[in-house]
Amino acid sequence: MPATTRTTLRRGLAAAAALPLFIGALASCGYGSEAKNNDEKKVAAEGAKLSADTVRLGYFPNLTHATALVGDQEGIFQKELGGTQLKVSTFNAGPSEIEALNADSIDIGFIGPSPSINGFTKSKGTNLRIVGGSASGGVKLVVNPAKIKSLDEVKGKRIATPQLGNTQDVAFLNWISEKGWSVDAQSGKGDVSVVRTDNKITPDAYKSGSIDGAWVPEPTASKLVSQGAKVLLDESDLWPDKKFVITNIIVSQKFLKAHPDVVEAVLRGSVKTNEWINANQDKAKASANAKLKELSGKPLGAKVIDSAWPSIQFIDDPLAATLRAQADHAVKAGLLKQPDLNGIYDLKALNKVLKAAGKPEVSDAGLGAK
Predict the structure, then answer these.
(1) CA 367 to CA 54: how far, in whole Å?
(2) Gap between the Cα atoms of 20 and 44, Å rounded
């Protein structure tokens, strides 16, 4: 058999073998849009790899990471990656995700602003870049209404935050300072007792009466509300345009340099996921909850997720100016020395994706990589 004939035959057999996989992928695609053109169909059918065989993605089983939950659950990331395999790891705290990035256990992660800042500054700007945004908002001060009826009555009470120096802890310490009250940041002792409590046990701590309230992200805030707590303050009300970054997308600088096409594919997946979430709120909420059930063994109750979901905005803009402000708050609280954040952002790939999608580009607030 001539060489050209053998090559043609091999290609035909490969295409035939890939066809059932392609059909199955379309059937399971929860966001309801088939490939937009023949080129996309060809990529999906052939399982074309990008420059890496695998990309390892980290995120939290948390509603403020719903872009990751939904993008993973609906196969949106994997579709954009083609034949490059997506491997997912989940984390319960920012420091452990940063450790995984530093240890080369993950390549890309969804994570809050405080661990992004800490990871960047501790490595003297060598380990990560923020390449996109994912979500804004979703943080509330919820309290026992029998003990606290106004913001001024928070003074003298025991209020939980998730972790010393985490994003919500910094925000609460800054709010306390703005009220003119004094708290030692390290010990949490002062005019308000700041009780660092893992989100997983905060509802039990509230139920037992060992805390009087909490400054926490969703869905923890709504879990407390389901136990009778009241929302005293939504953190969004403290920010311009009611927007502040709660979830970033970070990547190791090593991976970004070696595989920019893979990073771009993940960002395309993120942008498409956010677009689908915002156009299909009920389906997206159900999708996120299905992924949470898979990860934790138990979905959120309807009362909790219905309360939590509307307070989170799913946006592609990393809101860089608010990250700078959050760093300033950590400095003011004494938790961070004045950081050099120059180069923490690299938004070139994101802006390329946004431009291709007909969306406005976003700013790095002067903190972009040169």
Answers:
(1) 30
(2) 11
Distance CA 137, CA 348 (A): 25
Which residue, among 101, 57, 107, has the nearest Cα to 255 in the 3D structure? 107
What does the pLDDT profile of the chain (370 residues) look like in tens digits?
444 444 443 444 344 344 333 333 333 333 333 333 334 334 443 457 799 999 999 999 989 999 999 999 999 999 999 999 999 999 988 889 999 999 999 999 999 999 999 999 999 999 999 999 999 999 999 999 999 999 999 999 999 999 898 899 999 999 999 999 999 999 999 999 999 999 999 999 999 999 999 999 999 999 999 999 999 999 999 999 999 999 999 999 999 999 999 999 999 999 999 999 999 999 999 999 999 999 988 999 999 999 999 999 999 999 999 999 999 999 999 988 999 999 999 999 999 999 999 999 999 999 998 7
What the block records as the tokens of 38 is 């023949």
Query: Token pair of 84, please?
Result: 């490059």
